[in-house]
């Protein structure tokens, strides 16, 4: 069993050398957020994660959340950690200062955010969902609701949930049955059952703010008829403090594959008092605010679990002695060599590192675009950022979470049979990772969102904006001339191919609408490898720029980075060709087989 160590060196390199966080923040009018401050936020977060959260990762998995006659007990240590987190001000990192938050852009705190998830993902979901709920309330709620709920949530006195799913209604929200009936006093009475509600009930705080999707009596059919309501677990007294119970009950919690510390609740609403958020039938538009944040948050979960898996595998491959190097003994004084001498183990270690470190650049870049969208003073720049965010959110969510499955699976493989045994801890990472591919819209739905809504829906404009940004950065990066020419050519070739694939699919869709769904998964993956190649290209360009301190430590670190870049371009990037071929194959091979033959 090992404990998590925040990868400070890599995080700082990505923030400062690759993404120039200081300049990006200055463009948003935040030149007060300098390197020292950004690194200070990271250091504080890393210390909290390593000392308080990391032990809860295993503890929470072993003990799990427990349901006792409607109440839910979180694992030992969860509440103390939650209170300490809130007291340190972490709950309000991004929320407006007017509500008690710190108003920080993501770039100032994303690295700390990664350490919280890597520290204890199941624990972090309570505060992460609360931040998303606050964002939705800030965006869509009436001023009175905002002042009633947001400051309490930012202070960590109450948490937030997101209640969409019902037994018959998962991906297809149009099938929703929960009803909201208007009352004479302007409030609504909600009735229905929601399932799979993360932290729907718990013992961390004395009130819980549920954001609930439901239908009004006059709702039109399908997803156009969905409204959003804020429903507290306990009704509010005149002074805003929690009063009597509000017709919201937790019937049970699920027994599940991973994230055992996070209670997944079946919630029954019976005439629960709620307030409309936003316009009648306009609930999805507000909920999408929360979901966009949440989707980037889930991508962060994928990255953080993969980082933890990579760390465990790297340590084990150093400590475990088995066999001899094919080139002759390396550890001659030992009875055998460490695992990392073997080419196949190196293949796994380099794959893990290439995905984790390349994925970090991709995801932090996505957050940088989100900051630009949220805060840039010029409308034209915000508009460009909207396209970039629209494209990258489904790519990051689906690719980084599928990647987490591959990387955590490899961590088990590097551990051999011991990886299958609980004590080494890596099997938990694999179990925890799977949910990231499923919630916040399954990865199949992310691909549909990208291909259908973002790419075809914009007439290809989003992908053109993205490709222009790829070219612009490569043309202006200071270290560009020193990046191997083959790698530069590879990124340009893939970017061109992504444009061609867009044209191919757009042409076919006019004859057969199933072409969107048939191309979606492979199109998303081709886009992801293209972006990852761009990220690795930028990493190498930044290495060429960064004089660094010529210590042995920094030389070794730089050599590892360059070797990983080479591995990525030589051995992982060829996967993009397979995805391109699958996109070009079209829908026929998927759709022509009759259902009875498919399922025979
Ligand atoms: C641990 C956990 C925590 C969760 N937390 C929350 C929460 O806090 N709040 C909340 O509201 N929900 C939550 N969920 C629910 C989660 O978001 C849903 O499970 C998810 O959206 C998928 O819905 P479903 O399970 O009904 O699958 P289904 O919708 O039945 O999908 C099954 C399969 O079919 C595919 N599919 C479905 N429709 C289409 C389509 N049109 N095109 C292509 N493929 C399709 C899907 O991709 C999937 O592979 C949670 C779930 C779990 C397991």
Based on helices, strands and strand pairing, what is the structural class? Answer: alpha+beta
Number of helices: 19
Q: Mind telling me the C-alpha Rg?
A: 24 Å
Share of helical residues: 55-70%
Low-confidence stretches: none
Beta-strand proportion = 5-15%
Bound molecules: flavin-adenine dinucleotide
Order of helices and strands: HHHEEHHHHEEEEEEEEEHHHHHHHHHHHH
Commentary on this structure:
The chain is globular, with a radius of gyration of 24 Å. A hairpin with a 5-residue loop joins strand 4 (179-182) and strand 5. It has helices at 8-18, 21-27, 35-63, 78-87, 110-119, 121-140, 143-154, 283-319, 343-375, 379-414, 426-434, 443-456, 461-476, 485-509, 514-545, 552-572, 575-585, 588-591, 595-598; strands at 66-68, 71-73, 158-163, 179-182, 188-198, 207-214, 227-232, 234-236, 242-245, 248-253, 264-277. By secondary structure, it is an alpha+beta fold. It has a domain at 442-589. The chain is built from 19 helices and eleven strands. The two termini are 45 Å apart. Helix 6 runs antiparallel to helix 8, helix 12 crosses helix 15 and helix 15 (514-545) runs antiparallel to helix 16. It binds flavin-adenine dinucleotide. Residues 162-165, 170-171, 196-198, 256, 264, 435, 438-439, 441-442, 444-445, 448 line the site of flavin-adenine dinucleotide.
List the helices and strands and how they pair.
Elements lengths: L7 H11 L2 H7 L7 H29 L2 E3 L2 E3 L4 H10 L22 H10 L1 H20 L2 H12 L3 E6 L15 E4 L5 E11 L8 E8 L12 E6 L1 E3 L5 E4 L2 E6 L10 E14 L5 H37 L23 H33 L3 H36 L11 H9 L8 H14 L4 H16 L8 H25 L4 H32 L6 H21 L2 H11 L2 H4 L3 H4 L2
Parallel strand pairs: 3-6
Antiparallel strand pairs: 1-2, 4-5, 5-11, 6-7, 7-11, 8-9, 10-11
The site of flavin-adenine dinucleotide has 19 residues, from strand 3, strand 5 and helix 12.
């Amino acid at each position: 069993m090992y404990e998590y160590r925040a990868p400070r060196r890599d995080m700082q390199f990505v923030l400062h050398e690759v993404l120039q966080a200081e300049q990006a923040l200055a463009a948003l009018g935040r030149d007060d957020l300098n390197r020292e401050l950004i690194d200070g936020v990271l250091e504080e977060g890393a210390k909290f994660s390593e000392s308080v959260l990391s032990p809860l990762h295993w503890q929470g998995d072993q003990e799990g959340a427990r349901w006792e006659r409607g109440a839910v007990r979180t694992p030992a240590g969860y509440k103390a950690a939650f209170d300490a987190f809130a007291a340190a001000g972490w709950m309000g990192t991004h929320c407006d200062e007017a509500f008690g938050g710190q108003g920080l852009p993501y770039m100032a705190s994303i690295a700390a955010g990664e350490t919280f998830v890597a520290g204890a993902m199941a624990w972090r979901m309570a505060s992460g969902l609360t931040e998303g709920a606050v964002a939705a309330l800030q965006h869509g709620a009436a001023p009175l609701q905002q002042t009633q709920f947001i400051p309490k949530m930012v202070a960590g006195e109450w948490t937030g949930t997101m209640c969409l799913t019902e037994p018959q209604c998962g991906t297809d929200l149009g099938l929703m049955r929960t009803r909201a009936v208007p009352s004479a006093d302007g409030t609504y009475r909600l009735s229905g059952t929601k399932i799979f509600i993360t932290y729907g009930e718990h013992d961390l705080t004395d009130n819980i703010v549920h954001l609930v999707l439901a239908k009004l009596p006059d709702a039109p059919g399908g997803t156009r008829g969905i409204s959003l309501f804020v429903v507290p677990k306990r009704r509010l007294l005149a002074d805003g403090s929690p009063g009597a119970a509000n017709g919201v009950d937790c019937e049970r919690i699920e027994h599940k594959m991973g994230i055992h510390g996070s209670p997944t609740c079946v919630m029954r609403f019976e005439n629960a008092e709620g307030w409309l958020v936003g316009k009648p039938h306009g609930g999805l538009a507000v909920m999408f605010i929360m979901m966009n944040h949440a989707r980037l948050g889930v991508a962060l979960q994928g990255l953080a679990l993969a980082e933890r898996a990579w760390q465990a595998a790297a340590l084990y491959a150093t400590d475990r002695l088995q066999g001899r190097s094919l080139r002759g003994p390396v550890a001659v004084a030992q009875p055998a060599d460490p695992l990392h001498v073997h080419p196949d183990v190196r293949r796994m270690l380099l794959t893990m590192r290439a995905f984790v470190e390349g994925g970090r650049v991709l995801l932090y870049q996505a957050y940088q675009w989100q900051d630009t969208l949220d805060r840039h003073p010029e409308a034209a720049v915000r508009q460009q950022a909207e396209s970039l965010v629209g494209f990258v959110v489904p790519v990051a969510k689906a690719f980084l979470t599928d990647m987490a499955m591959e990387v955590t699976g490899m961590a088990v493989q590097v551990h051999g049979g011991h990886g299958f045994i609980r004590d080494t801890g890596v099997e938990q990472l694999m179990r925890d990772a799977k949910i990231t591919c499923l919630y916040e819209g399954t990865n199949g739905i992310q691909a549909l969102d990208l291909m259908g809504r973002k790419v075809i829906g914009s007439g290809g404009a989003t992908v053109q904006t993205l490709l222009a940004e790829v070219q612009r950065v490569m043309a202006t990066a200071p270290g560009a001339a020193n990046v191997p020419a083959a790698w530069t050519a590879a990124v340009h070739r893939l970017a061109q191919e992504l444009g061609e694939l867009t044209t191919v699919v757009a042409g076919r869709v006019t004859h057969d609408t199933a072409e969107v769904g048939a191309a979606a998964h492979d199109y998303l993956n081709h886009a992801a490898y293209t972006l990852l190649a761009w990220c690795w290209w930028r990493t190498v360009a930044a290495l060429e720029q960064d004089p660094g301190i010529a210590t042995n430590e920094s030389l070794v670190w730089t050599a590892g980075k360059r070797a990983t870049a080479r591995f990525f371009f030589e051995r992982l990037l060829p996967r993009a060709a397979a995805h391109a071929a699958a996109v070009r194959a079209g829908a026929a091979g998927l759709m022509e087989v009759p259902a009875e033959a498919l399922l025979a």
